[in-house]
Design goal:
Oligomer: single chain
Protein name: Cell division protein FtsX
Shape: elongated
InterPro entries: ABC3_permease_C, FtsX, FtsX_actino, FtsX_ECD
Keywords: Cell cycle, Cell division, Cell membrane, Membrane, Transmembrane, Transmembrane helix
Subcellular location: Cell membrane
Radius of gyration: 32 Å
Strand order of the largest sheet: 2-3-1-4
Function: Part of the ABC transporter FtsEX involved in cellular division.
Structural class: alpha+beta
Strand content: 5-15%
Helix content: 55-70%
Number of helices: 9
Length: about 300
Amino acid sequence: MRLNYILSDLGIGLKRNLSMTIAVVVTIWVSLSLFGSALLAREQVDLMKGNWYDKIQISIFLCTKDSGGRGCSGAEVTAEQKNRIKQVIESNPDTAPEGVFGESKKEAFEQFKKLYKDSPIVSTVTEDQMQESYRVKLKDPQRYQNLVSAVSGLPGVDTVQDLRQYLDPLFNALNKLRWGALLAAGLLLVAALMQISNTIRLAAYARRREIGIMRLVGASNFYIQLPFLLEAILAALIGAVLACGTLWLGVYFLVKKQAEETFRVWQWVGATETFQATLIMVVVGLVLAIIPTFLTTRKYLKV
């Protein structure tokens, strides 16, 4: 009997506040979709960092007679200078074990011909113009500055290149976009929170006479609050389901069908990351429904 009454009261409440309920569903749908997208953006940035930073090597190019680097004196790097450079690299605490690889002029020229095999520039370059180099892999790619500072300016060193100097601006831009999406999602979640509160407040005001009668006959606070709570949870669940569906469709069409096929070099978010994001979205949606409902009904159900 009580269950029938609660379900009947729930149906009446939904009919009375249908337009407001639809507005709540749409707001939660949009806000959770953006929130889930921001979560996946964070995961994507982390995947891209892990994929590239683990492969980053510092390239130390040695002097030739035409080099103009700070450590060059218009002459080829000497054997003594090369030994000194290698010693500094290997003694650096950030250098990975067996992480130093030398590249001769011949090897550099072969690599150059592979990269530019279809370009006429190959015929204008000789092996003697190539630079010898050391490729260094670090234990922790985040600590690249220590080694760069140690070898820069050493006699025989022309230039020191690190891929991070090109990747960091990209990742910084992606991080700003991620935080921007989170901020926008947060504002929309606040809007959803306020809209749920207003919907419950209006519903409680419209049924104030019924609430008074229920209190007079001894109904508990939770029993009175339950129809309002179910109404908010139902709206939140519908919005969360729509948001989760939107997120899965977005990942399938934008990531799987386009990004992965176009940019195969990157590692992209998949089912695991999307499933985790949808779980968080559902939990957030339920919290958005439960907390404002309890707070609002406690204040407006006093008779």
